[in-house]
C-alpha cells in the first residue's frame, strides 16, 4: 500500500518549499498598543477589554467536545494602581515581543520572567504572573504564544514510527525526516513550534497513533517493534503533554486522518492526561479548537483492566479518591462508560501503572494486551 500523503506545499521559482508565514502574527499587539496610545492622547484613563478567564465564563461544549470561553468581558483599567501596573507590564511585554521579531530571536517563558527584572516597577514577581499575562495576550490578540516567539523550556514529545515529515531548521534549510528510519533510539523530538511553516507532513503507512504516557513503555513498544508490526506511530507524551504535543496530535488527526489512542497509567491523574489531549483543559480553554482532538480514544489502563488482567496494583490515596470524585462531575468524563470505570476504581480502591503488565513478561503488552484492546476498539 502506498503511503498516505498530504497536499504538497507551495513552491518558489527554484523549487524550494515555501512555508506558510503568519505575517500578521504581531499586528494585533501593535493595534492594542495603538488603542492605548489614542486613549492617552485624548486625555482618557487607559483601559482595555478582554474576555474573562474565570470558571464561571467557561463551558464544556458537548457538541464539539471541548472547553470554550464564554462571552463575558472584563475591563483592565489604569484607574487603580494594580490595573495601571498590569497595563504597564502588558506593553513592556508587547515591546519585548516585537523587539524579538525584529531581531529574529525567541525566548523561553523563564527567560521572559528574568528579562522583566529590567522593567523596574513593571517587573513580574513570580513566573506565574508572566505566564498568566501571556495567556491574556493570547486571548486579546487571538494569537498563540508561539506567534509571539515565546516557548517553554522543554520541547514536546518524541515520535517513533513510519511518519515522514519535512522540518525547516533555524537556518531555513528544509530536511526530510522519517521518524523511524532517520532517527536514533529516542525518536524524533518535536520542537516547540509544530505549525506548517516549521513542520510539514509528507506521508505515512501507519494506521493509527498511540500516545503513551511513560517513557519506559515507549521504549518497550519500540524494542518489541510494535510500531512496525502494527503499522503504528508511537508518541511519548512525557506525562502531562506539552502544547506542542497536543497540537501535533491534532494536526495528525485532522490532516492525515489517523485515529489517536491514548495509553496511560490507570489512575485519576492519567485520566486527566487523556482528557487534556481529547477535550482540552480549563487553563487553555481559549485554545481548545487548536489543541484538542475530540476523536481521541482512551485505551487504558482502565479500572476494568486491573481486574480483568489481574494487574499488580497500589491502594488509592486520599488525594486519588478526591480526584476521582471530582471527575464524576467533570463533563469530560460524562459518558456512562467513564462513569462506570471511575466508580469501579473507587469501589475497588486500586490503581496500576502501565508497566504492571510486565507481570506476564516483556512481550505481553505488545503480543496480547494492546492487540486485544485495539481489536476491541476497532482500531486494528
By DSSP (H or I, 4+ residues per run), the number of helices equals 13
Average residue-wise pLDDT: 86
**Stretches with pLDDT under 50, minimum 5 residues:** 1-21
Morphology call: globular
Largest sheet: 6 strands, mixed
Key traits:
single chain, 380 residues, alpha/beta, Arc Repressor Mutant, subunit A, Dna Topoisomerase Vi A Subunit, Chain: A, domain 2, 6-stranded mixed sheet, 13 helices, globular
SSE layout and pairing:
Layout: E1 4-5, H1 27-41, E2 47-51, E3 58-61, E4 66-69, E5 73-77, H2 81-103, E6 107-108, H3 109-115, H4 127-141, E7 150-151, E8 158-161, E9 163-168, E10 174-178, E11 188-189, E12 199-204, E13 208-212, H5 215-223, H6 226-229, E14 232-236, H7 243-256, E15 260-263, H8 268-278, H9 288-291, E16 297-300, H10 303-308, E17 314-315, H11 318-327, H12 336-348, E18 350-351, H13 364-377
Parallel strand pairs: 6-7, 13-14, 13-15, 15-16
Antiparallel strand pairs: 1-12, 2-5, 3-4, 8-11, 8-14, 9-10, 9-12, 17-18
Helix pairs in contact: 11-12
Notes on the protein architecture:
- The protein is α/β, with parallel strands linked by helices and 380 residues long.
- It folds into two domains: 27-142, Winged helix-like DNA-binding domain superfamily/Winged helix DNA-binding domain (Arc Repressor Mutant, subunit A); 158-377, Dna Topoisomerase Vi A Subunit, Chain: A, domain 2, CATH 3.40.1360.10.
- It has helices at residues 27-41, 81-103, 109-115, 127-141, 215-223, 226-229, 243-256, 268-278, 288-291, 303-308, 318-327, 336-348, 364-377, and strands at 4-5, 47-51, 58-61, 66-69, 73-77, 107-108, 150-151, 158-161, 163-168, 174-178, 188-189, 199-204, 208-212, 232-236, 260-263, 297-300, 314-315, 350-351.
- Strands 11-8-14-13-15-16 form a six-stranded mixed sheet, sandwiched between helices.
Amino acid at each position: 500500500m502506498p503511503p498516505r500523503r498530504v497536499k504538497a506545499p507551495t513552491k518558489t521559482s527554484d523549487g524550494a518549499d515555501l512555508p506558510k508565514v503568519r505575517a500578521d502574527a504581531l499586528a494585533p499587539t501593535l493595534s492594542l498598543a495603538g488603542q492605548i496610545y489614542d486613549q492617552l492622547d485624548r486625555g482618557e484613563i487607559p483601559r482595555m477589554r478582554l474576555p474573562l478567564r474565570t470558571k464561571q465564563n467557561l463551558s464544556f461544549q458537548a457538541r464539539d467536545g471541548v472547553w470554550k470561553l464564554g462571552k463575558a468581558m472584563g475591563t483592565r483599567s489604569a484607574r487603580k494602581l494594580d490595573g495601571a501596573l498590569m497595563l504597564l507590564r502588558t506593553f513592556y511585554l508587547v515591546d519585548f515581543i516585537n523587539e524579538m521579531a525584529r531581531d529574529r530571536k525567541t525566548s523561553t517563558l523563564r527567560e521572559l520572567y528574568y528579562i522583566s527584572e529590567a522593567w523596574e516597577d513593571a517587573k513580574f514577581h513570580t513566573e506565574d504572573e508572566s505566564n498568566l499575562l501571556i495567556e491574556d495576550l493570547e486571548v486579546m490578540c487571538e494569537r498563540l504564544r508561539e506567534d509571539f516567539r515565546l516557548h517553554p523550556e522543554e520541547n514536546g514529545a518524541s515520535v517513533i514510527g513510519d511518519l515522514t515529515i519535512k522540518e525547516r531548521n533555524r537556518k531555513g534549510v528544509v530536511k526530510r525526516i522519517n521518524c523511524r528510519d532517520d532517527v536514533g533510539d529516542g525518536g524524533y523530538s518535536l520542537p516547540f513550534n509544530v505549525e506548517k511553516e516549521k513542520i510539514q507532513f509528507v506521508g505515512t503507512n501507519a494506521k493509527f497513533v498511540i500516545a503513551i504516557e511513560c517513557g519506559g513503555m515507549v521504549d518497550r513498544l519500540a524494542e518489541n517493534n510494535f510500531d512496525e508490526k502494527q503499522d503504528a506511530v508511537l508518541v511519548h507524551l512525557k506525562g502531562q503533554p506539552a502544547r506542542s504535543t497536543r497540537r501535533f496530535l491534532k494536526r495528525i488527526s485532522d490532516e492525515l486522518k489517523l485515529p489517536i489512542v491514548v495509553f496511560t497509567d490507570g489512575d485519576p491523574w492519567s485520566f486527566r492526561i487523556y482528557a487534556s489531549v481529547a477535550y482540552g483543559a480549563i487553563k487553555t480553554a481559549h485554545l481548545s479548537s487548536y489543541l484538542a482532538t475530540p476523536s481521541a480514544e482512551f485505551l487504558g489502563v482502565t479500572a476494568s483492566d486491573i481486574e480483568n488482567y489481574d494487574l499488580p496494583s497500589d491502594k488509592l490515596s486520599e488525594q486519588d479518591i478526591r480526584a476521582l470524585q471530582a471527575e464524576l462531575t467533570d463533563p469530560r468524563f460524562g459518558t456512562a462508560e467513564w462513569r462506570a470505570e471511575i466508580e469501579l476504581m473507587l469501589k475497588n480502591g486500586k490503581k496500576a501503572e502501565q508497566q504492571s503488565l510486565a507481570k506476564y513478561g516483556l512481550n505481553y503488552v505488545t503480543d496480547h494486551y494492546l492487540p486485544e484492546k485495539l481489536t476491541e476498539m476497532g482500531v486494528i
